[in-house]
Design goal:
The chain is mostly beta strands. It is built from 1 helix and 21 strands. The longest helix is centred in the first third of the chain and has 16 residues. The two termini are 42 Å apart.
């Protein structure tokens, strides 16, 4: 009987994983290419694979391992490939297959592209599962030159942006950014952190940032902050807003940039909040 219980303890995680295909989360942000000669954008693809959805094999006593491959493709409007890369993921060995111990694995890719219309396709394959071991996620991707001052896509962060001079794939605008996978904020998250960039505004001009955080039921909070654009490069915008009385569920963050009473540009980001579920660990290094 003891042998059967041990055998079930080893097989149960693999059986549970086979209930559905592996999961793949793709967070995509567009930033204008600072190279003025080569017009276009820099696409930032933040990839997260929740390892709860992967099959774990026992490698040694109290040692379990999973493995997956992620293929990223960017297809032009005519279907021809503009970019393709395959990354092999091997999450750390764990000594227990309890779900709480399976942190997701994340990585970041920055891809320069000319303006145009594309399709981003991500494919994840569970290397230890033959049946139902693949999932495909697609996102439309439109890159176009702005007519005036513009904000990049807004990155939602799990922790405050940290000023850094190091060399890290997760650095942007001189800050180390810890992203919240799929914009999900779970149990214990009291604040919303975010990052964006303003480009094309006249240097030295006094501007005003307005933040509007709102839930589906109409609950909302607003805040303002001054901003002075920098010359020759994008102006980083980092912020923090308390969730306060915001209820659970989907929320929207709207970032507006004003010159006096004139709205220059704005950008919207959506996220999800839960007071009972734990969010995936945000990654700031691979």
């Amino acid at each position: 009987m003891r042998f059967l219980l041990i055998l079930w303890a080893c097989l149960a995680p693999a059986l549970a994983a086979q209930a559905g295909p592996p999961r793949l989360l793709l967070d995509v942000a567009r930033f204008r290419n600072p190279n003025q000669v080569e017009k276009g954008a820099e696409v930032e693809v933040y990839v997260t694979v929740p390892t709860q959805s992967l099959t774990y094999r026992q490698r040694a006593p109290r040692a379990f391992q999973s493995a997956a491959t992620v293929t990223l493709e960017i297809l032009r409007a005519d279907g021809k490939p503009a970019y393709k890369e395959t990354v092999i993921l091997k999450p750390p060995v764990i000594n227990d297959t309890t779900l709480a111990l399976k942190n997701p694995v994340s990585f970041l890719k920055r891809i320069p592209l000319p303006d145009g219309r594309y399709t981003l396709r991500g494919t994840v394959r569970d290397q230890y599962r033959a049946a139902n071991g693949e999932a495909v996620v697609e996102r439309p991707l439109v890159l176009e030159a702005p007519a005036g001052p513009t904000l990049s896509d807004v990155l939602l962060l799990a922790r405050p942006a940290v000023k850094s001079n190091g060399d890290d794939a997760f650095l942007r605008g001189g800050y180390l950014l810890t992203r919240a996978p799929s914009g999900f904020f779970g149990r214990g998250a009291d604040n919303l952190y975010f990052y964006t960039e303003l480009q094309g505004a006249p240097a030295g001009q006094s501007l005003r940032l307005h933040y509007h955080l709102a839930a589906a039921d109409g609950t909302a909070a607003d805040a303002d902050a001054p901003l002075t654009p920098q010359a020759g490069r994008p102006t980083t915008v980092i912020g923090q807003l308390p969730f306060g009385p915001l209820p659970e569920g989907e929320f929207t963050l709207l970032v507006d940039v004003y010159s006096g009473k004139k709205l220059l540009t704005s950008h919207r980001a959506t996220g999800q909040r839960s007071s009972t579920e734990y969010a995936p660990a945000g990654a700031a290094s691979r």
